[in-house]
Amino acid sequence: MLQISRVFPGALNEEAGLCFLLHREQQLVAYASQGNVILLKAPTLDVHRVLAFFEAYAGFTELDARICAIAADSDYGLIAAAVGTQVACWVPSAGDAWKVHSTLNVSIPIRSLHHQAGRLLVASDEMVSVWEQRDEGGIVVWSKAWEDRTDSAPVIARLSETGAALAYAYKDSKDVHLIDTRRSTKQILPHPRPISSLTWRRPTAGNRSSLTLYTVTSDSTVRIWQPVLDAPHELRLWGTIDSDSFFSDERAVHVRWLDRSVRPEEGEPLHEDIFFAVDRKGRISLRTVSNIERRPPTLLELHPSQQMPDLHTIAPDNSTAVIPIPSPSDTLVMFLSQHSLQALSVTLSSYLDDIKDDSKPLRPYTTEPFGVQHAETIRGLHLRSDGRAFVTQADTEIILWDATSSTPRTVARWNINCELAAIVDDGVLVYAGKDLVLLAKDGSKRRVQTPAIPILRFLYSGMYLLALSSTHCFEIDRHTLEILGQAPLPDATASIRVPIFGHNREILDVSEDGELTFWRYAHGDFRKLGGLATGIKGVSMAACSVDRRSALVKFDGDQYHLSIWNSRLSEFSSGLEFEYTFSEEILSLRWTFGTSDGLAVSFKTHVVVMWPERMTYFDTTPSWASWLQISVDQFSPLALNGASFLGDGSLVVTAGNQVAIFNPILKEPPPSEPSNLLALLISRIGPLPDWHPQVVLQCLLWNKVDRVKQVIERLAKVVLQEGATTDSIQKGLMHLNDEPYDDEYHESQQTPVSRSAQRHSALFGSETPVMDEEDEWRFSRPLITKLLHVLDERPLPILTINEEEHLEALIETTLEIDEQRRALDANGIRYLISIRSFYILNRKSKESPNVFEQTPVIEARSRIRYRDMVWAYHSDTQELLLQGCTQACNNKMTWSDARALGVFLWLTSNDVLKEQMENVARNEYMAGDDRDPERCSLYYFALGKRRLVHGLWKQAAWHHEQSMMLRFLDNDFDVPRWKTAAMKNAYALLGKKRYQYAAAFFLLAGALQDAVNVCVKQVNDIQLAVAIARVYEQSDDGPVLRSLLLNTVIPMAFSQDNRWLGSWAFWMLHKRDLAVRIIMTPLPDLAMTLDGPIETFGRPNYDDPSLAMLFSQLKAKTLQAAQGTSEIAPQTEFNFVLQIARVFCRMGCHILALDLVRSWSFDRPTAPTPIPQSAVEDDYDMSPTPPPPMRRSSFFSLTGRRRSSVVIDVNLKSLPETRAPSPKLPTVAEDQPADVKAPTAIEAPKPRRTGIGSLMKSAKQDTKVPEFDMDAFF
Question: pTM of the entire structure?
Fold first, then answer.
């Protein structure tokens, strides 16, 4: 939540006046503004609460309710307000909240209210009445206690302290009417001039029955009225204080009595009353009167006036009030100017010599005046292009605000009815009727040059102002207000036109069909900058940022759909960054100034600040997030009208006739992050430090393990330093990258054996052995163990809980990689990263519950991603990977473990596949204490081991199905009768929803296709279907497996836009060209080359930077892959690399983005020349094609580069000179036997034993020990 800088609660309703009450040791000032009661805290005048009249009467709104009278009673803590003939009352609730106490309806419009001693005085046009409250079943009901008719409407009416007597006066009347409601007696107090105010004196303790009335006439003369001894219920004039007696050089224009009696310096324990006066210069003078409570009136004593210093002045008007402030000093008061709402707080004992005050006087305090405010509901909020000024527009009011300081202030106010308003250099330019009118800052108005065509909208465009009509655009100079030029609009059919934030003369057009077009106006013409087809029809609202991000809102009649689009469009990005549906009406969209690209979305109840979120591998979060919600409900129930950012990041919010300014300082900023909103937004989307888990993970995936080790070493030096504190660690992290990294790090690292040899050799040398002080900071298990222990106890201050858990997991993973790096290839390392992170993070998710919700902080995953499985599939160290997977499962891999790790998708050896399936079956049987054969039947049947299952059932004596299964498994299932019986049992099990057991019976009947269908449709396990198909058919070319890949896996990959899964499936089908093309080619275009119709396509998603790594690895791995690469246009590859670089930047890995675009190779693979048949037969040795020239290596690289050989997976003799974009996939015949070989166009030909020459020998030799080096692609 942002801190509230200031709230401008609205102009005062002059007919209602103001009052004050003491609420929980806090003096509150209450006044009416439009249909609301505003409560201000004294003496700061901060808004305490806004009480809306519609809270008591739901039918009212702030538009049709104008409060005409208010009253407040400190003794009862009650506030009353009247609108027309209706009265609403509020009382305090829990905290600072207020609740509706009661309501009252009268028959005649109300003019004045007053509440005292539990009685409510209501003065209407023809009646004065007194009402008392009573409780009827928990509901407060007002009953009329007294009433009397009047000659006209009293404008001033007050009850006495006991509530028994009342006094009122008509407008411009010279008489005060007194009525004793209990005795029904009346009295008229005549005055020589009209009455301006009257007040009952609050008696002191022990003298509650005393009646004293102060009246002030229009000439600021005060009269004191009290009863005499022989007539205690009739008032007589006791004394007069002339307006000339306050100032020696000028007459007072306003005089009031301070509602507090003070004790004199010496004498009897009596009290003095204080009167103050204000002259035309705003000076304040004081006079005290003593002996008011004494009898007879001849003892009344008036003391000389004492003027306050000229330094302490207040805005002069005829409605200044003085309010006592609760404090240790009895003489601390606040002078409040009613019109400007400016307050001056002083301690009167500092200026009155005869007043006793033992407390220390407080320094005078003057508040900043509110200035002019709105009396009507605000309809529009218009900002200047630099955000340093803005205009608020009501129906007949316009106020100009200056926002150059931290707290905006009002500059001028005009009463004018206009359609449009825009800020120019000399004031505000408005379009009223058919004229352009300049509202100058001095309050004057003048007409300026006006286009002949009616203006529909103003657009700020940098230093210029564009006036748009239905057909033309007029450029207006903001200084001279001259029309500099005009041009026809480029698209007259555009439904919405908005300025492009921060760009001169640039606008955005939105068509009815949702097409975005960017234009620049220059030299009397519009030039198109670009466009974007969103496909959203009926856009109702739009806004465009400095970075040309466009926010669109569509209303479908029920909900509001917000979408955010990026104008940087390519075939790899639709432009859509975020979309969300809101049920609440969206009022406005406003971008932040500058490049932070924060978006304020205004609703009626709150404002949501959104910003582009970093992409991450850790959480499935959207690319945009809302983490800041701003509302005014903590002090106001009014619905918001709109919100907009100012130039310094402040947020201005309008609600009703009120303006709230939120400064850009967060109340509770995230730990170790900027407290300024704009700085925080920039830090959330800027580059991440090298030790951040996001960067560490990407470096590990891109095989930059040595760089990660150096980063971890430096991190350990900072965290493990002696006497490290939070501040020292944070400072050390900021300077972690000050020194350059060592590019020869892998060579400088020495094994412990070599270091020991050096030390032993030094014993026999002449040099003194020197211990390497850096050895203790070398990357090793002891160092990592110590680092992880410290991080567990004292997390890094900058990271969140999730990020801290991920960092620890990656550090531990890096250690595992370092210990096995010499045995693993690059793809194996990537897979090891995935499974280590997978298990560590899932373990962390169980160990780290949320303190408040008792839920895991890190969400557990059921399996690794298909991306990670593909790395293992292309690894040449699968035996080590399988060994690591088995160890991760404690040597008891069940099917859930195998599925989580994708084992049966990436294993390539059929023998290992069968062996692993048998291990899974055995572990499934051994899992648990019951030893249930049902759990392992599917896996053993896939292996063809029916007799083994029969033996397991013999041991399941406890199972209620044992005898039945033993009799059934004794049969020969090669006989059609028992195949049919197995099929019937399978369908019966489907009816009982025992799906996996049903699939086992399908396998028992030899119906592999039916078993696969059950795994796909009922069990919803694609991996299980692939596993049993591969094991049952004992080949990757079986018809059922190929059908599964063609008809299920590939369509699923297309529907989910999962290019990893699609690439794996095409590679399994020996369509390596399609496996490469799917990485970059749009899926609808690729689907056109396939036989089977694919109609469902997922939204294009190229937000995985590892796609570039996969493409660089596969594009020249085989001849088919090289052919697929050659079908990709170079420009497409160029755009693809730029897209991945943008993704890196969105992830905060800017250094990797720079590395990618700096070192990416656009070399096109070249297919080998077809070999003549005679040359093949004669074992002709061909010279290899010379390699392309060396490219510059990656500055991020740490190892050398070695080129890989190309695997020949096509028949070179039959290779045509030209080929279609992609061969069609073969159809799988339903009656094709399992042992039929796949067509030669799909299956790679087996090399002959002799005759292909040294080229094939070299290829075979190279593929035995492949070595993947990331530097080969940089």
Answer: 0.78
